[in-house]
């Protein structure tokens, strides 16, 4: 089992490379039917006639993909207590069925508190297979500090 990361381990400048994900047209339509039924997300023929020129994923689905990639690369091995904030969310380019989504998270803030917790801030950038930016945001999360007698 991998070693757990605590707030002390998450230093400014640390980078987590995210995995890859590609959404199929069927996944895009199924998600949108439930959560964001805009016609350009659920109707490929309609989407062809829009400025997008074809089916695109909901921004909400893009956020969900980012969350999963972050979990797999970063959160799963980290003593996360809770998310605190998501700031500056920007959708830069649409995600299409052919888009390969990847990215990185870089820690830009580490604030260790005396109560056994720390605030960790990081920027997230999703890119496509050509390196073009799809989405950016900054997240702050509350993370446990390494257990010591002082906190227990």
TrEMBL record:
Domain MaoC-like: from-to ranges: 13-111
Gene3D superfamilies: Hotdog Thioesterase (3.10.129.10)
Transmembrane stretches, start-end: none
Family affiliation: Belongs to the enoyl-CoA hydratase/isomerase family.
Name listed for the protein in its UniProt record: MaoC-like domain-containing protein
Organism: Paraconexibacter sp. AEG42_29
